[in-house]
Amino acid sequence: MHIALIGASGYVGAEFAAQINARGDRLTTVGRADCDVYSAEALRKTLRDASPDVVVNCAGYTGKPNVDACELDKANCLAGNGVLPGVIQQACESLNIPWGHVSSGCIFTGRRPDGKGFVETDTPNFSFRQNNCSWYSGTKALGEEVLADAQQCYIWRLRIPFSNIDSPRNYLSKVQRYENLLEAENSLSNLPEFVAACLDCFSKNVPYDIYNLTNPGSMKTSEVVELIKASGVSDKQFHFFDSEDDFMQRAAKTPRSNCVMDSSKAIAAGLKLTPIEECIQQTLKNWVPEKEAAVGQ
Ligand SMILES: NC(=O)C1=CN([C@@H]2O[C@H](COP(=O)(O)OP(=O)(O)OC[C@H]3O[C@@H](n4cnc5c(N)ncnc54)[C@H](OP(=O)(O)O)[C@@H]3O)[C@@H](O)[C@H]2O)C=CC1
Ligand SMILES: Cc1cn([C@H]2C[C@H](O)[C@@H](COP(=O)(O)OP(=O)(O)O[C@H]3O[C@@H](C)C(=O)[C@@H](O)[C@H]3O)O2)c(=O)[nH]c1=O
């Protein structure tokens, strides 16, 4: 399969590129340096010339070191998350190329009113329409609205990614590095399993649709801390904020979307997502500290 990857230079894009190469698929990367990705015509020409079988979009604006930074660069964030998906849709549809878009579970907060995790048909409850969200989450929800009528398109929802490679973007690293932790319940995505599931959508002919690609189940921060301690990866003394208000006052500029998601639709479609506790345990067993990860590159 020949895959054109938009956003290959990012945290998520790098994992896509690595797995595409490891599968022996053909990879063409498309970035802002190659063409004006905001021009459907320029993007169409670039894609037509490359002639891929499928396109994957993992470009987007996340904010560094975290989503707080999006509050300071709203126009770029809106462009990357709200406008770009629509331009890619236009280019792909004009060439009749199937494609997938990396969205985020952060368009939800909490649990459904019935206590269950959010499913794909639930309306995002952490969005500009609810007027309760971070700028980042609002733009990601808009991105999904833009793609509501997209053809031959997967929307893959990633949520607080983690892997065994220690890095500032890895949730298991963040838990070890933050001075104080917010106690919250979340569904999480193992990044390698997320990317494998996205690529499997094409190879297994999974129906085009929205998929929550989180590892089944959810974890409280304190439960993640216990797994880290039990693994021997860190012997740090972990400290917690007193409350969400304390977190907002001392560490955050904008609210976070801690939420529980239901990934049973993805599992039923044959995508492999290991239950969350088991997945974190396996990940910590194979932990590669950042210094060793840098040597291996
Ligand atoms: N990391 C996370 O925690 C999560 C990420 N996601 C989503 O996954 C996607 C990738 O995230 P991640 O890899 O972490 O992000 P990174 O910031 O690591 O990478 C972002 C990528 O998008 C490109 N990009 C950044 N801003 C823009 C813009 N305004 N217009 C066009 N291209 C842009 C960058 O390209 P360039 O080299 O040109 O700068 C880069 O390739 C995003 O859509 C994000 O919302 C979803 C859930 C969780
Ligand atoms: C800043 C901070 C966050 N947290 C918690 C809040 C939250 O539950 C969790 C993650 O918050 P962060 O601020 O690290 O990350 P944030 O930027 O909110 O993370 C998000 O990135 C974007 C791109 C996404 O799409 C999301 O799915 C998610 O991965 O860590 C702490 O415990 N202590 C802290 O000091």
UniProtKB/TrEMBL annotation:
For this UniProt entry, which segments traverse the membrane?
A: none
Give the record's family classification.
Answer: Belongs to the dTDP-4-dehydrorhamnose reductase family.
Its encoding gene is what?
A: rmlD_4
Q: Which GO terms describe its molecular function?
A: dTDP-4-dehydrorhamnose reductase activity; methionine adenosyltransferase regulator activity
Source organism per UniProt? Roseimaritima ulvae
Q: Protein name, please?
A: dTDP-4-dehydrorhamnose reductase
**Gene Ontology CC terms, in alphabetical order:** methionine adenosyltransferase complex
Q: Which residues form the signal peptide?
A: none
What is this enzyme's catalytic activity, as reactions?
A: dTDP-beta-L-rhamnose + NADP(+) = dTDP-4-dehydro-beta-L-rhamnose + NADPH + H(+)
Entry's InterPro entries?
dTDP_dehydrorham_reduct, NAD(P)-bd_dom_sf, RmlD-like-bd
* Enzyme Commission (EC) number: 1.1.1.133
Residue span, RmlD-like substrate binding domain: 1-179
Q: Which GO biological process annotations does it have?
A: S-adenosylmethionine biosynthetic process
PANTHER family to which the protein is assigned, alphabetical: DTDP-4-DEHYDRORHAMNOSE REDUCTASE, METHIONINE ADENOSYLTRANSFERASE 2 SUBUNIT BETA
Function recorded in the entry: Catalyzes the reduction of dTDP-6-deoxy-L-lyxo-4-hexulose to yield dTDP-L-rhamnose.
- Tell me which Gene3D superfamilies the record gives: NAD(P)-binding Rossmann-like Domain
Q: Please state the pathway this protein functions in, per its UniProt record.
A: Carbohydrate biosynthesis; dTDP-L-rhamnose biosynthesis
The alphabetical list of record keywords is:
NADP, Oxidoreductase
